[in-house]
Amino acid sequence: MDLQHWLGEASRAVERWQGQFGPYQPHPSTAVGDEQFGAALATFTERLQDNYPFFHPSYAGQMLKPPHPAAVVGYLTAMLINPNNHALDGGPATAAMEKEVVASIAAMFGYGEHLGHLTTSGTIANLEALYVARQTHPGRGIAYSSDAHYTHGRMCGVLGMAGTAVPTDAAGRMDLDALAAVLATGDVGTVVATTGTTGLGAVDPLHEIVPLAARHGVRVHVDAAYGGFFTLLAGTGLIDPAPWAAIADADSVVVDPHKHGLQPYGCGAVLFRDPSVGRFFVHDSPYTYFTSDELHLGEISLECSRSGAAAAALWLTLELLPLTSDGLGAVLAAGRRAALRWADLLEASDVLAPYQRPELDIVSYFPREPSLSAIDAASTRIMQEGMTAAVDPVFLSVLRVDASAMASRHPEVAADAEGARILRSVLMKPESETYLSDLHARVSALARPMTLL
Ligand SMILES: *Cc1c(COP(=O)(O)O)cnc(C)c1O
Predict the structure, then answer these.
(1) Are 200 and 172 spatial neighbours (Cβ–Cβ below 8 Å)?
(2) Residue 23 belongs to some domain of the structure
(3) Same domain as 134, residue 115
(4) What's the pLDDT score for residue 300?
(5) What is residue 450's predicted lDDT score, i.e. its pLDDT?
(6) 198 in ligand 1 pocket by Cβ < 6 Å?
(7) pLDDT at residue number 19
(8) 144 lines ligand 1 (CB under 6 A)
(9) pLDDT number for residue 298
(10) Which residue has the CA at smallest separation from atom 8 of ligand 1?
């Protein structure tokens, strides 16, 4: 789609809408001359060049990519109006869109009745879920895996709750025996299962965690901030469907449309299976909630002002790439296939080794060196040389793993340090699939010892 054309169409549609309210002149205090604007814009676009090429498949580092053009048009168009999804007073159209996209996400997870809304981020979405967990299970703590996002430990501090890190197994998943021991103490009220850890993309065995938690009267929250949209691949044979099917039985779930949902930053989501938890958000506002007796989203959210444009962007995107295996699912499937193929190539490589088999689209790997210190040095050298190369740069990220985690996967590596940085590539762009041979060749060349050149 031609972005410039559709941005023009969209801004003209907003101008037509504005026209019905009669003539109006912007105030001279905000007036800016074209020459002045051109100069500022030139400086601005020059400064924006200081960025990594997130759009290009040679960027195979962190969880970063630009939004879909439909999301850009949806966001910018709604931004010309600037609705605030706090209350229906602030933008009825985008509030309705928000309810619709949240209902689509609920359907994807197999939630029938639900309560949910978009948030500014996965962090705030998880905070709301943990806040509700504290209210439903007062005086009891939260358990999460040692590979869970650091936000859970930090938010336990914010909420004044005890947080317990449960060890992971040799695949980076929450260890069920360790969890059973933690739950047996009776101190934990909620388990956070991560379906797709941020580091390795490991998927906690939610289908086993749910019945275990039920036996202890413990609540289950799923942090699917990164992995949630992989639910769309549950029937494709590309991933193990069991943990994804079990989200329907969990009490709450978080997913970030600004990660795998093709959205710009500022779009997370939290959903609760039991709508009655809305009672924990109850408040009145002397300013708002006057235009309608229908649910105002601010009445079920800890955040007040929220971007209506974020809801608009997601709504327009999902009209075109719906939450089906052939819609948005096809985008994730390509990255998943790329990850599987790269794992096979790494297995066969004489210079690089897979750290573990990817469960989603995050590939972890390291230079075949004999010790942790040598792996650490070679990984950081490859990352640095890759991104500063004058020709065909490649952009990778590193992940710190500790000695015991390496030993459980690769006991032959000498543990001469507390841990090592290894290489990590999030293949979240579907373009990664066609680029994969080039990527593997580039990283292998960087990994090859200089003496062989
Ligand atoms: C990214 C992520 C978060 C934090 O979400 P933000 O949107 O960055 O605030 C939490 N949990 C997991 C598993 C994540 O991948």
Answers:
(1) yes
(2) no
(3) yes
(4) 83
(5) 64
(6) yes
(7) 95
(8) no
(9) 79
(10) 122
Q: Is 194 in the pocket of ligand 1 (CB under 6 A)?
A: yes
pLDDT value for 289: 67
**What's the CA gap between 75 and 316, in Å, rounded?**
9
268 lines ligand 1 (CB under 6 A): yes
226 CA distance to ligand 1 middle (Å): 6
Report the candidate in 138, 142, 127, 134 with the shortest Cα–Cα distance to residue 188: 142
| Encoded tokens for 193 | 């299962």
Strand-pairing partners, residue 369, are none
Same domain as 252, residue 333? no
Going by CA atoms, what residue is nearest to atom 6 of ligand 1? 122
Q: Look at residues 301, 320, 339 and tell me which one is the last residue of a structural domain.
A: 320
* Cα 439 to averaged position of ligand 1 atoms, centre (Å): 26
Residue 279 CB neighbours (<10 A): 10
CA distance 1 to 387: 30
* pTM for the whole structure: 0.96
> Distance between CA atoms of 210 and 185, rounded to whole angstroms?
18
DSSP code string of 379-441 = HHHHHHHHHH-SSS--B-EEEEEEHHHHHHH-TTSB--SSEEEEEEEE--STTHHHHHHHHHH
Answer yes or no: is the C-beta of 256 below 6 A from any ligand 1 atom.
yes
Expressed as residue numbers, the domain containing 165 is 77-320
Ligand 1 centroid – CA 225 distance (Å): 5
Candidates 115, 147, 78; CA nearest to 271 is: 115
Q: Indicate the top mutation candidate among 64, 118, 123 to test ligand 1's pocket, ranked by most ligand atoms within 8 A of CB.
A: 123
203 lines ligand 1 (CB under 6 A): no
Distances (CA, A) of 321 to 23, 215, 314, 429: 38, 39, 10, 15
Residues 298 and 372 in one domain: no
Q: Which residues of the chain fall short of a pLDDT of 70? A: 286-293, 450-453
204 lines ligand 1 (CB under 6 A): no
Distance of CA 319 to the CA centre of its chain: 21
The reply to whether 301 and 174 lie within a common domain is: yes
Are residues 315 and 336 both part of a single domain?
no
